[in-house]
Amino acid sequence: MKFPWSHTTIVDMINTDQKVEEKCHQVTTDIIAGKVNVAEFVEELGPALTHTDASVRAKGTTLLSNVLKDLPPDALQANQVELLCTFYIDRSLDHHTVTPMVLAGIEALTHMTNFPDGAAVRLLRALFERVPCQSQKKPERTLYFQMMLNLAERKVDELKAWGVDFVYGVIGAIEGERDPRNLLYLFERMPSFIRTFPMYHLAEEMFETFACYFPIDFHPNPNDPVAITRDALAEHLANCLCATPEMAEFAVPLLMEKLDSSLIMAKLDSLSLLRKCLELLEVAKLEEHHDELWTALKKELLPAGGTSAAEKELVEATFAAVQALAKNASTDEPSAKALLDKTLLSVMGGLTDASSKQFEMSLRVELSCAQGSVYCAVYVIEKLIPMLLAQLNVDGHVETRVANVLVDALQRLCAVCAHWYCIDRLDPALLGQMHKKLIEVVLQEADGSEQKRSALLALAAVPEMVTSENRYVVYSAMVKILLTATEQPSKTIDAAQECLFSFAIRYQQEVKTVVLEKLITHDYAQAETSLVQLVFKTLGKFILYHGYMDKMVTFFLSKIFDPDNERLAIIAMDTLTDVVENGNSSQLGKAELYEQYKLLDRCFECANDNLSSDCLHAMALLIGAVVKQLPVEEQHQLILKRLPALRLQQRADLYLASGLLAYLDQSVPLVDHFENLVTDLSKLALETDDERVRDVCNRLLCSLFNRMPDDEHHRGVLKRLLKMIREELKKHNHQAVVILSWIGKGLIARGHSEAGEIVDDIADLLDHPTLGHIAALAFEILSIEFPQLHLPLLRNLFKQKLFVWVMKKLEQKVEQYAETHLKALAFVLAATPHTVLKMNLSKVGPVLLKCLAQTDDKTILEALTIVLRFTREQDPFVQDHLQTLIPLLLKLSVHQSSMKIRIGALECLLYVCKYPTFLLLPFKQSVLLALQKPLDDRKRLVRNAAVTTRLQWFVVGSAEDTKTDK
């Protein structure tokens, strides 16, 4: 064997050769290839490994350990790993400067596939006895833990046979660890270890090893690139403390002690730990602690806690702990009853007086208990119903606020009952009393009252409770609320709808014949549009309910194809479109509306130019929603059947075409129709005076050119159309510019080669005396996203591409930009991703400042939005241009034609205050003076923004501000 350093001694090479590690990489490659045996390599290193100088031995061991770390896991045979294990065991007695390299080598060996049996015990015994873990530096302790736990995972049986000495060694190694990253590693891995290996008599000692960290008090380093959070440490520590039921037993006294802490975070950790313990421990192990636990929990809840976010979080965590405690006790009914009696007795005073401040908290305690189990739910409901009804049924007047609270409490009990499906377990007499009261509320209270809302929600939760004769009372109330919805609060309407849907599932035939029949036969001709929309939307949801589809679809189709009331037809079509698009059921569009009810066929039969554009537009959207649900083959057949007969010069046919083509799959061929379609659409868009028709034509052109096959024929169609449009531009036709922009939009989105030429054409028009303004607006079309516009081909980064094209075209004219150029650029910049703008801010920044100096509101608003983002980020560009920016913002703070601009400018001035004080002081007086005027603005939101901004500028340069700045 010939090593790279054989021309000199290994010791000399280690001391002098600067490239020794590179040579070791070659050795690693040779070992992997089988050219070098690892035993020979160790032998070659012998003089260094046995040298009298500890530093030389350390370097020699480092070389060997580095080679082992670079080797793949299957590179060594079992006998070779055995040899290396023996070597490192011997090295564990070496000088402490060699120990880090020894640990690195052993850790590398633990990953070897052919790690021999018996070696794990020998290695760990040597380390436990000779290398105290906590005497090492942080990196070495990390290796120690990794090696130890890797072996614990791989050699379970072998280490279990070793017994208590292994567990004792592990405890000794991890005890007293302080590094947060090492602790997180241990907290993540040790629960599995504790569950795998018997703890013998060391269970409490293992628990105490982790208990000393509880609760976690940790403040992460803000400069840590991979920061560790306190919450992560706390969560994984709790898993260690509750790794087994045996450990969880020790955790209960610990958490009860920490619940007495004055620190909210300590209490939150204790409550979290309690919930974990309750999941593991049998009730017999916890029963003795019930009194103490409930006393500690009650202390956090009664009297009512504070209002800060942390205090609210603590209250919610306490309720969760109460629920977990009740759930744990439920496995033994006597224990559960004793606990529930105890909690009920504690909160009885609050529950018997709904006007007291303690009522809500007391009720929530009982509801938390009820959520523990079916047994708890039945117990709590049967105890609380009489208390609540007694306060509602008193002789004399019950204050409205109190009655609202009590009926709401009944509703929440019903929700718990529904959650556990426990209505059959409740006392029928009690159930009857509650049912009677709820029906009484529904009958007697005003439709918009809070009590009626709560009663309807209660009945919605448990519709089985309502007797047959009383169900008709509920049905009448729901119908009345829905048919007078414009007079009702939204919460009442929501409750009525929820109740209706709940009863619809339980009592299908009754709801069909009573409620729905009244709703669908009601005369909506004179009803307010908002009311019709709400009722139709409610009815639309029934289409997706089992057993209601035929009745509902028939109703909507009767309205859609009713020639006498176009308004109702439009609302019906909008409702059906919404159901098809958001109903999560493709079968509705395909199998039902398309095949069974022949919806599209009926639309094509009834569509004519006598219908309004609004009606035809709604029909097109409905057709598009159904077509979108069809398989590709069905779409293809539909196009072959319907498209050739359409004459796009007729308004109705145009809308039908837009419905057919709007969401057509890109694989459906349109070769035979493409040229005629784009010719007719462009001609119609140029000639018509109907704005709605032009918009339909333009969007269809955009979608068609986006999906256009990229072949010679279609490129020829595009070139001929562009030639015709350019001829129209010579005639100063504004609509030609718009058409060009829509075609460009479709091509840009797919990354077509012609798109750049179209952008150039529109950019050239910005200087045109009559077309300049419309060309600027064309860039808005090119830039922004439009709802209901289907672009099947979208290329990545197409917005960035548009930005590059436009800037390249216009960047040479920064000083000569006219208003139209700036307006166009504002639209493009608004659509460009922020990171791209940031990368090009040296070019973009001056443009934005010029935009802020314009008079056009849209231009200013788009630019101001971008500048605000950069100011919020404290970008250096803004800092360098404060002398220009601040006067512009002050001028915009009194810009009368737009409240949004005034608020945006004031917000921007507020963030400017974050820049260094010495930069702001020269502007302070002029800003304070100028901000007096917005203080008297006619809009309250502007005045609020002005107060906040002026106050911040007022403290610029104060002692506290200067100190903070430094």
Automatic annotation (TrEMBL):
Listed SUPFAM superfamilies: ARM repeat (SSF48371)
The MMS19 N-terminal domain, residue ranges: 42-302
Record GO cellular component, one term: nucleus
Biological processes per GO annotation: DNA repair; iron-sulfur cluster assembly; protein maturation
Family assignment from sequence similarity: Belongs to the MET18/MMS19 family.
Job of this protein: Key component of the cytosolic iron-sulfur protein assembly (CIA) complex, a multiprotein complex that mediates the incorporation of iron-sulfur cluster into apoproteins specifically involved in DNA metabolism and genomic integrity. In the CIA complex, MMS19 acts as an adapter between early-acting CIA components and a subset of cellular target iron-sulfur proteins.
Name assigned to this protein: MMS19 nucleotide excision repair protein
Species assigned in the record: Anopheles merus (Mosquito)
Lineage: Eukaryota, Metazoa, Ecdysozoa, Arthropoda, Hexapoda
